[in-house]
Write a structure and sequence with these properties.
Mean pLDDT of chain A: 86
Number of helices of chain B: 6
Number of strands of chain B: 0
Structural class of chain A: mainly alpha
Order of helices and strands of chain B: HHHHHH
Number of strands of chain A: 0
Shape of chain B: globular
Largest interface: A-B, 45 and 35 residues
Oligomer: heterodimer
Radius of gyration of chain A: 18 Å
Order of helices and strands of chain A: HHHHHH
Low-confidence stretches of chain B: none
Strand content of chain A: under 5%
Low-confidence stretches of chain A: 134-138
Mean pLDDT of chain B: 87
Number of helices of chain A: 6
Largest sheet of chain B: none
Strand content of chain B: under 5%
Distance between the termini of chain B: 13 Å
Helix content of chain A: over 70%
Number of domains of chain A: 1
Chain lengths: ~140, ~130
């Protein structure tokens, strides 16, 4: 049989990886934000840039959230096909802009949303082209 | 704001981030392919990881992973998150090209169509942020 039976439990875990991915990006952004006026032209600039970021709690929260998402994602993939998992997990392409607007005060034009729609469609088409993996249920 | 890097420098750095990440994935994939993946217990997982970290290619991949992270943090310190995150979807393009060229995987017509959609989307958001 094919691994394409989407249960409520799998759906819950898929959505949680989306939320974790979005949280990761939010944390990366917050850790890098204070360095917006640092420019890098040589190696010592790189250290000046990176030092406060490494000391930022946000960076470590991002790592932790990446690790957690990776563990959940790997265990989901043994239960469901990539062609089913990826489109659902791609909702971070909508979640990240929403978080950017509401929590980071970024502004978005209609052209941004149109572009994101194209990207999302592309990601779904790409993932639906993966081969269906046949598994044997013992 | 005039001394700020333009959107094209940002786009270039996002391309670099995606490229480094793809190189990391290719190193990791070829390393994993060289091991026989037969995991039945939690002990097998640790044996697998232990074998993996002794492959030099894995460490080369890790170096690119770190470079990709530095590049990404620099991008985020300058650019809007919504733009950077959406534009980072270009790693789908590099992965498609990389798997075809280096892993000799077949990339079907449908995948190229999806890739074109992603490229169009990235062009749209780039002009929107110009």
């Amino acid at each position: 049989m094919y691994k394409n039976k989407l249960t409520l439990k799998i759906l819950f875990f898929l959505i949680s990886t989306d939320i974790l991915e979005t949280f990761t990006q939010y944390c990366f952004k917050r850790s890098a934000m204070p360095q917006s006026d640092v420019f890098i032209s040589n190696f010592s600039d790189l250290l000046i840039f990176i030092k406060p970021i490494i000391g930022s709690g946000f960076l470590w929260m991002a790592f932790l959230s990446t690790l957690l998402a990776f563990v959940i994602w790997s265990s989901i993939l043994s239960k469901i096909d990539l062609s089913v998992a990826v489109p659902i997990a791609s909702s971070s392409y909508i979640l990240v802009p929403l978080v950017s607007i509401f929590f980071l005060g970024e502004e978005m034009a209609w052209l941004d949303w149109a572009g994101i729609s194209f990207i999302l469609a592309g990601v779904i088409i790409v993932s639906s082209s993966t081969k269906k993996e046949k598994i044997i249920i013992p | 704001m005039s001394h700020y890097p333009t959107i094209f420098i940002i786009l270039f750095l996002i391309i670099l981030t995606s490229l480094f990440d793809t190189i990391n994935q290719l190193f990791l994939k070829t390393s994993i392919n060289s091991l026989n993946l037969n995991i039945r217990s939690i002990r097998d997982v640790f044996t697998f990881i232990f074998k993996l970290i002794r492959i030099p290619k894995v460490w080369m991949g890790f170096t690119f992973c770190v470079m990709s992270l530095f590049c990404w943090l620099f991008v985020l310190s300058k650019a809007d998150l919504n733009y950077a995150f959406s534009a980072d979807s270009m790693h789908y393009i590099f992965i498609a090209l990389g798997s075809r060229i280096f892993l000799k995987e077949k990339v079907g017509f449908k995948r190229w169509v999806g890739t074109v959609f992603i490229i169009v989307g990235i062009i749209m958001i780039t002009f929107s942020n110009y």
